[in-house]
Specification:
Distance between the termini of chain A: 32 Å
Helix content of chain A: over 70%
Number of strands of chain B: 0
Order of helices and strands of chain B: HHHHHHH
Radius of gyration of chain B: 18 Å
Structural class of chain B: mainly alpha
Number of strands of chain A: 2
Chains: A mainly alpha (484), B mainly alpha (220), C mainly alpha (314), D mainly alpha (672)
Oligomer: heterotetramer
Helix content of chain B: over 70%
Largest sheet of chain A: 2 strands, antiparallel
Largest interface: C-D, 80 and 89 residues
Largest sheet of chain B: none
Strand order of the largest sheet of chain A: 1-2
Shape of chain B: globular
Radius of gyration of chain A: 21 Å
Number of domains of chain B: 1
Order of helices and strands of chain A: HHEEHHHHHHHHHHHHHHHHH
Chain lengths: 484, 220, 314, 672
């Protein structure tokens, strides 16, 4: 039953805030709902840990296994910390007059709806509903991206809407083909799209249909993952939206989209019996990593730069999933977690930094370590973590990915080496002067909410040195589930 | 025997859909585009209904109804008002000129048919042969989104694509499970609503719906 | 062993005492060749005595290093002289330092001289130091190469054993040693500050190397350095003899050969000195920046010697 | 090892990582007393120094103890940290402990009166750095190794950028971290090849893995690249002359003296321990690169005018020599000449140890100078031997040692290496017989140039007239600084005077790697590597003789004559007005070298024109590789990124075309 709480709370939160979101304490209420969601998710997780995978609802509308349960927890957790962060952040935005109460109401309610949609996407067992909720998540965030109503933000939102809409339409076509293949085995009707049922009979599904279906699904959901060359909406949306939105977009939405791809990949692998899907994903992943690395190099806007770095990391994860095998899948799942935590932490720090400097241009941000050491160190450590420097957890997964790649597909590693090198040089070379050095800016007036930053980084650090057994257990089960 | 008769009608409607898609591709004026879109919706609804009647798949009636309400009545009306209100019925030269677009369109259709051929052979439905047409509609709509330069035309292209998808669903497998149909419909509704808000925002910011104002965000 | 030690000390003292004599002999030959009336052959001894009697004059802010250097240099040269077999072949010291160590000793002395020269901070001092190091950075490896050729032949870096092999085994012609010999000649000319690399008798700013370094020295310090210089010349000659015409050096523990050895030594030294002065007389001082080329040639010849050895003699 | 010793040292490795833990505790403790600079310097650093001493002790025991291993409960799920302490690790542990003890003692005095922000973080990084290096030596699986490796790099980066207000220092730090990271990724790939594929990253499984020569060579090349980037192997050396001067002197000392050696350690570990096939041409390659690096480094050291930069370049030279020794070892080893391999390996380890001591000594020496004068440019220094005699004389020891002069330690390792060249005849590949003489010649040349460099360094900084009146107020180094320097200088002397003992200590390491040991044919005071017939060297006798002769001469001169001294102005050929500007500057002293080797460097001169009011002449010799290699790479990268940027030109139609094209392409691709 926890599942209904997990989905219901944010939904209720969305409605509640839509009605009473103009109140003074809306941010706190927002955080409260997120907290409740987190609690519910924790309970659910505990239940799964205790009882193993389970199906809920009629013929099993919801299905929770080790793969999605940790994503649920992750989502709820990051959603909560982001809400904490956005509480003071949005207040200050309001003081700066960039927002008014009504927009804040819109922001808060869409935020909750967005969370609800993602949780639904994660927990549903029905590939159709999965599609529906992905679309819903998109729609919920479109208006968040254009929250500031600046021309740039509108443009970004428009591109986001159209590109993701078209992409998601491809995904729908893929889903239709999937259903088309499924109903011949499972008979028509609702159950034919239930992932568990499909997974049961995946060997009998029609290969030719499924490979077409996978192409459409990959292109469709891949657009939301931000795989090159379908990624073009991503940097704009991240750069122009409010920072908390950027944080959840790259911290959560991309994961969920990739989750959808993986669910379909399992089926396709089963049906085709070759690694066509894997190869496609490796290709996409590699392309994204390299392209993103070189695009990072020319960024001047800090949020845009980190958006590209998200593309890079998503590419890396996709590549790892494409390689398959227990180690690579494990690494990919680990990297998903690490990237969400680290990247959102970075966006928190960046948010305060930009708010302080009054610009997102990196030339305008200097000597943070002087104006506000905690923000400075937060950004510095976050950057170091995201660049895959130990002892932070991102390194752990990159270690596994690269070594496995070197062993299984040596041809790919020169590209990885190149891309990682370029990305490191670009990002670090741009962040270092932002953190170190002299500056004229006065010290930060208000006390920033940096607890989330350091909670995240602390977690990442811990996971780099020690992964709790049960967590490792999840990862392992999930890796098994994803086939290897 | 009657089945074949219905089948012929459905095929006819399918052909009509394809024709309308081409027409939309070549249509310059937005009002005309909206009308064509409405017609396309009507054809879709009709064919869905016939399939439902002939095969006794009752849930298809719902989707036919949804289509009728949303895509034939609600949205066209909405777009009419929008176009009138924002007064954006001016003609814009598409990125690629019309004849070329047509040629590309024909190539796409052939491609789509080839693609759909193996699938429709294994399909059990009476309407399998129309799957290729559905796919063609999707691709043509995509092409239209690429070539047009106005926000509204792009959105209409997007919705035309959804029509194609619905048609594919119906023809390939008598539609999706009802839940999904509902969900999709809901999404489309919300989507259009959001778009509405959007258009006004864009309009009041750029006082035009021309996409050429929205090319600022790029790598310079 | 005790006899060995006695012999060792005797030989070292002999070297120390004979060194100025060699210097005097070279000057004398030179004078004759230049048609001057020669100073007496004992002139260097007189100079030394005179210098030792004088009061030392030292620059105001010369550091202890400045006064320490001459003793250091003298000690190094003495040790070097002790290692090289001049008359007899069993030297208890020689295991303490083989040819490589010998090069090390020369380098040690040179570094101290250069540092002392820079200590007073005069323009000439640092100029001399720089030029000295310039000469040495090519001469030192070249010398090493010469030694390597010899020790590759004799399978040892111990001078006595080298001499043993070259002198007291059956006579073989080693082409590599020919290269080594030429190289060694050039090196010793450079290292002992003789024409054509340097001119011991001039204080001309443009040309002087060695003299520029010891300008600030006077009295006993100068005497020690001059003596060390003489000793160096002696050691080099002894080295040349040991490497290229070792015949006559007494073998392990036959004392009957000693008198003959002494005679042979004197004869060879005299000859060597004469040849040296003759070469000086007929050649002209080269420009300073030719010096690296000169020594580069020596270095090259040394390496060639080694290569030849690997080609023909392995 | 015998059972008895097995029972004797049950869990040595535990002691080692306990030491690391102790350092971490110290470091994080320092964060708590962030601002009490006095307490930090006079309490935490001494404690850290004790830790270093303890490490050295553990290492000394570990040399003779049997290998001991432990598994820590941290790391990846299937890959907890494996730690192992065998002879090789133990040796480098001794090196680390010995050098860093002196440096840390010195640091007490140095950081006490260093003007900088709060010290707490610095202390933390310092101890993290030490701990990281130790963990690198102990690591027994790829993950632990890489984590420690990068922690080491990261903490040293933060130490380098201590003074991050200065843009050049930021640039240096960036360059350093970048090259370190690229090297680290190369190492990742190397380990990726070494691992068996079934996700087992322990070194044990790697030792067992069978490899084809091709992949083995790939591993070796990657290792050479990765570790070379850290060691400062040409052409990956560019970070070194930037980062070393930027860092605070004790840190420079640690980086140059110890950190570079961890790279050597890694190279030895991978090549001789993890790989179970070695190929001859590897050795030739390493030898060639090593000699190139040595000559390149020393030539550039000779033309530097910043004292710490000069030392950094000389570090490159020494690394080159070590690598040459490494290459030679490989050649002999693959050629089945175990004894020779043992000899060169001994030379290698010995030189690594020596370099740790004398380079550490020299760097801390410059640190004291920096303190006393606030000046790094040699052109502004001079005559310091009068104002800071302790520093000067102790530095002199280091300078003589690094110049490879007997009887100090630098000479011993050089001697051993040259012996190896002499014992070569009869290698199976004839071309090697041709290579050897040339190699020997270049080693000798490098050594001689090193002497040149050191005369320049010491002469210009400590001798002569002060080139700046302010120098007259230069103060002598504080006592902790002196103690640190004394420790290091003593190390140089003892390592030089007792080679036989040192080589006995090295024996287990050599046996571990090359299977043979170096037999010392001599007695306790004589070193005779192969046989006393072939070669021998007895530094103690040497030293004694020199000392005795020196004393005798002194006494004799004083006895027979007199000790009268008159002070006067320097004579200088009677030139009347002398001043400090007439001495050779650093540039002047290096000028001959620059003239001879100008083709290697890009010389930028600023000549005064005849009508200049205040004519000044400057010349800087820059590293040509930077312009030939690095700048083109940078340009290429930005060109590519420009091309990539073109794809993203803001028109939504184009974006749609991209996804449309992708879709079509994939459809064609899968249905073809």
């Amino acid at each position: 039953m926890e599942i209904y709480w997990v989905l219901g709370i944010p939904l209720a939160g969305g409605i509640f805030l839509a009605l009473w979101g103009c109140r003074k304490h809306a941010p706190e209420i927002n955080a409260l709902f997120s907290l409740l969601t987190l609690v519910a998710a924790a309970v659910l997780t505990a239940r799964i840990v205790a009882e193993g995978p389970m199906m809920v609802g009629g013929e099993g509308w919801f299905f929770i296994d080790s793969f999605n349960v940790f994503l649920v927890t992750l989502t709820a957790f990051v959603a909560f910390t982001t809400a904490l962060f956005s509480r003071p952040y949005m207040r200050i935005e309001q003081e700066h007059g960039r927002l008014n109460a009504h927009r804040l109401r819109l922001y808060h309610s869409s935020y909750q709806i967005f969370i609800a949609a993602m949780l639904l996407a994660l927990t549903t067992n029905n590939m159709g509903i999965l599609w529906v909720s992905m679309e819903a998540a998109t729609l919920a965030t479109v208006l968040l991206v254009s929250l500031y109503r600046t021309p740039a933000s509108l443009e970004a939102a428009w591109k986001y809407f159209i590109l993701c809409g078209v992409g998601i339409a491809q995904a729908l076509f893929g889903t239709i083909l999937l259903y088309f293949a499924a109903e011949k085995v499972l008979g028509s009707g609702g159950t034919a799209l239930l992932w568990t049922h499909l997974n049961g009979v995946k060997a009998q599904l029609e290969p030719t249909v499924l490979q077409l279906a996978f192409v459409f699904l990959l292109v469709g959901y891949g657009t939301k993952v931000g795989l090159a060359p379908l990624h073009n909406w991503l940097p704009d949306a991240h750069a122009e939206g409010p920072t908390p939105v950027s944080a959840v977009l790259s911290g959560l939405l991309l994961n969920v989209a990739l989750y959808a791809v993986m669910r379909s990949k399992v089926l396709v692998d089963g049906a085709l019996g070759n690694d066509m899907a894997g190869n496609l994903m490796m290709g996409f992943g590699l392309l994204s990593v390299v392209l993103a690395a070189f695009l990072i190099k020319r960024q001047t806007d800090v949020k845009r730069m980190f958006a590209y770095s998200s593309i890079e990391h998503m590419g890396l994860i996709t590549f790892a999933f494409g390689m398959g095998g227990p180690v690579a899948n494990f690494a990919a799942l680990l990297h998903m977690t690490m990237h969400s935590l680290t990247k959102s932490a970075i966006f928190f720090a960046v948010g305060h930094a930009t708010q302080k400097a009054g610009t997102q241009l990196m030339d305008g941000i200097r000597g943070l370590i002087k104006t506000n050491p905690t923000i400075g160190w937060g950004l510095m450590l976050g950057t170091i973590a995201i660049l895959g420097v130990p002892p932070f957890g991102v390194f752990a997964s990159e270690f596994l990915i690269i070594t496995t790649a070197m062993h299984e597909h040596p041809w790919a590693t020169p590209f990885l080496l190149l891309a990682l090198g370029v990305a490191f040089a670009s990002i670090f070379g741009k962040v270092q002067p932002m953190v170190f050095g002299e500056t004229e800016l006065p010290r930060l007036s208000h006390q920033p909410a940096l607890a989330p930053v350091f909670i995240h980084l602390g977690l990442v650090l811990m996971l780099g040195l020690f992964i709790p057994p049960y967590l490792a257990g999840w990862y392992k089960q999930a890796a098994q589930l994803l086939g290897g | 025997m009657s089945l074949t008769y219905h089948l012929q009608v459905v095929n006819l409607l399918a052909a009509l859909l394809l024709l309308i898609s081409f027409a939309m591709l070549s249509q310059r004026r937005i009002i005309g585009l909206v009308t064509l879109f409405a017609w396309q919706g009507a054809a879709l609804a009709l064919s869905t209904a016939i399939v439902a009647w002939s095969t006794g798949q009752h849930h298809l009636y719902y989707s036919a109804g949804l289509t009728l309400i949303l895509k034939v009545i609600a949205m066209p009306w909405f777009f009419y008002r929008l176009v009138k209100k924002l007064d954006v019925d001016r003609e814009v030269e598409p990125m690629i000129n019309i004849p070329t677009t047509m040629l590309i369109g024909i190539v796409l259709v052939i491609f789509a048919f080839n693609l759909a051929l193996p699938i429709s052979q294994m399909s059990g439905t009476v309407t399998r042969s129309t799957l290729g047409i559905a796919m063609a509609c999707v691709l043509l709509a995509f092409l239209m989104m690429i070539t047009r330069r106005k926000a509204i035309t792009q959105v209409i292209g997007f919705l035309a694509m959804e029509n194609g998808l619905f048609f594919a669903a119906t023809s390939a497998s008598y539609g999706m499970p009802l839940v999904v149909e509902m969900g999709v419909a809901l999404d489309v509704l919300v989507g259009v609503f959001v778009l509405g808000i959007f258009f006004f925002q864009i309009r009041e910011t750029f006082d035009s719906l021309d996409l050429k104002h929205m090319e600022k965000l790029k790598e310079h | 062993m005790t006899t060995g030690i006695l012999l060792q000390i005797a030989q070292t003292l002999l070297a120390i005492l004979l060194a100025p004599l060699l210097m005097g002999w070279v000057n004398q030959c030179r004078a004759w060749l230049q048609g001057r009336s020669a100073p007496p052959i004992t002139q260097p001894y007189r100079t030394l005595r005179k210098l030792f009697h004088k009061d030392a004059v030292i620059a105001h802010d010369a550091s202890p290093l400045f006064r320490f250097a001459p003793y250091m240099i003298f000690a190094c040269m003495a040790l070097a002289a002790g290692i090289v077999p001049t008359i007899a072949n069993d030297l208890p010291f020689s295991p303490a330092a083989d040819v490589i160590a010998l090069v090390g000793i020369f380098a040690l002395a040179r570094v101290f001289l250069a540092l002392a020269a820079m200590d007073t901070g005069t323009s000439f001092g640092s100029l001399g130091a720089r030029r000295e190091m310039l000469v040495s950075f090519l001469a030192e490896p070249a010398l090493l190469m010469v030694f390597f050729t010899a020790s590759l032949i004799s399978q040892s870096t111990e001078l006595p054993i080298i001499v043993e092999t070259l002198a007291h085994r059956e006579f073989v012609i080693y082409p590599s040693m020919a290269f080594a010999a030429v190289a060694f000649w050039m090196i010793s000319v450079a290292e002992n500050a003789r024409i054509p690399v340097d001119n011991p008798t001039t204080h001309l700013e443009l040309t002087m190397i060695h003299e520029a370094m010891i300008l600030e020295y006077s009295a006993r310090h100068l005497a020690l350095i001059e003596w060390a210089v003489a000793l160096k010349l002696f050691t080099y000659s002894a080295l040349g003899i040991a490497l290229f015409l070792p015949w006559g050096i007494a073998a392990q523990g036959d004392f009957n050969a000693l008198p003959l050895a002494i005679l042979a030594l004197v004869a060879k030294m005299a000859l060597g000195g004469a040849v040296l002065s003759f070469m000086e007389a007929i050649s002209a001082k080269v420009r300073l920046f030719r010096a690296p080329e000169f020594l580069g040639t020596a270095f090259l010849l040394g390496v060639l010697g080694m290569l030849i050895h690997f080609l023909l003699e392995v | 090892m015998t059972e008895s010793s097995m029972t004797q040292f049950p869990d040595l490795v535990n002691w080692a990582w306990a030491g690391v833990l102790y350092w971490l505790v110290l470091g994080f403790g320092a964060l708590l007393l962030q601002r009490q600079r006095r307490l930090l310097t006079s309490l935490v650093f001494p404690l850290g120094a004790l830790g270093a001493l303890f490490m050295a002790g553990v290492g000394l025991v570990g040399l003779v103890a049997p290998p001991s291993a432990v598994i820590l409960p941290i790391g990846l799920p299937d890959l907890p940290f494996h730690l192992r302490l065998d002879a090789l690790s133990a040796f480098f542990l001794v090196l680390l402990g010995g050098a860093s003890f002196g440096v840390t003692v010195y640091a007490v005095g140095y950081f006490r009166n260093m003007r900088a922000g709060p010290l707490g973080l610095l202390v933390l990084w310092y101890h993290l750095f030490l701990g990281g290096m130790v963990t690198v030596l102990l690591a027994d699986d790829a993950y632990a190794f890489m984590v420690a490796w990068e922690v080491m790099a990261l903490s040293s980066y933060f130490l380098v950028t201590t003074d991050h207000k200065i843009p050049d220092i930021r640039r240096a730090g960036f360059l350093y971290l970048l090259i370190a990271h690229v090297g680290a990724v190369a190492l990742l790939l190397c380990f990726g090849l070494l691992q068996g594929g079934h996700g087992d990253y322990t070194f044990n499984s790697m030792r067992l893995a069978e490899m084809t020569p091709f992949w083995a060579s790939a591993v070796y090349l990657l290792a050479l690249f990765g570790f070379g980037a850290k060691a400062g192997l040409v052409p990956m050396h560019v970070w070194l002359p930037e980062a070393h001067p930027a860092a605070p002197s004790p840190v420079s000392a640690l980086m140059s003296g110890v950190m570079l050696k961890t790279a050597i350690y890694g190279l030895l570990r991978v090549t001789f321990d993890l790989l179970n096939v070695q190929i001859g041409w590897w050795g030739t390659l390493a030898l060639a690169l090593g000699l190139l690096t040595a000559l390149y480094g020393v030539i550039f050291a000779a033309v530097q005018s910043d004292m710490k930069r000069l030392l950094a370049w000389s570090s490159i030279e020494n690394i080159g020599v070590i690598l040459a020794a490494f290459g030679l070892t490989l050649i002999f080893y693959t050629d089945g000449k175990g004894a020779l391999a043992a000899l060169t390996l001994t030379a290698l380890l010995y030189h690594a140890l020596n370099h740790a001591f004398f380079k550490g000594l020299l760097f801390v020496g410059t640190g004291s100078v920096l303190h006393a004068t606030g000046e790094r440019r040699m052109g502004k220094l001079g005559g310091l031997i009068r104002f800071m005699p302790w520093t000067a004389w102790l530095t002199l020891v280091g300078a003589l040692a690094i110049a490879g002069l007997p009887p100090l330690n630098g000479f011993v390792s050089e001697w051993l290496l040259l012996q190896a060249f002499l014992l070569t005849p009869g290698l199976t590949q004839p071309y090697l017989n041709m290579v050897i003489p040339v190699a020997a010649a270049s080693v000798a040349l490098a050594a001689a140039l090193a002497a040149y460099v050191m005369v320049k360094f010491f002469g210009v900084v400590f001798l002569g007239q002060p080139r700046d009146p302010a120098l007259h107020h230069a103060h002598e180094a504080s006592w902790p600084e002196r103690l640190g320097m004394i420790w290091l200088a003593a190390g140089c002397a003892l390592l030089g005077l007792f080679p036989a003992q040192v080589i006995d200590r090295l024996a287990p390491v050599v046996r571990l790697l090359s299977g043979q040991t170096l037999v010392n044919d001599g007695n306790w005071l004589m070193l005779a590597p192969v046989s006393a017939e072939r070669a021998s060297y007895a530094p103690l006798i040497f030293f004694a003789v020199v000392a005795v002769v020196l004393l005798l001469t002194f006494v004799w001169v004083r006895r027979i004559y007199h000790g009268r001294v008159r002070r006067a102005d320097p004579w200088d050929c009677g030139y009347p007005e002398q001043d400090a500007r007439m001495q050779d500057t650093a540039e002047g002293f290096g000028q001959p070298i620059r003239q001879i080797f100008e083709s290697f460097m890009r010389v930028e001169r600023e000549r005064p024109d005849p009508f200049d009011r205040h004519p000044r002449y400057t010349s800087a010799s820059l590293d040509k590789l930077w312009f030939l290699l690095y700048e083109p790479i940078a340009r290429l990268a930005s060109w590519i990124s420009d091309q990539a940027g073109r794809l993203q030109h803001g028109r939504i139609q184009w974006y749609l075309i991209y996804s449309f094209a992708t879709l079509i392409f994939l459809l064609v691709f899968v249905t073809r």
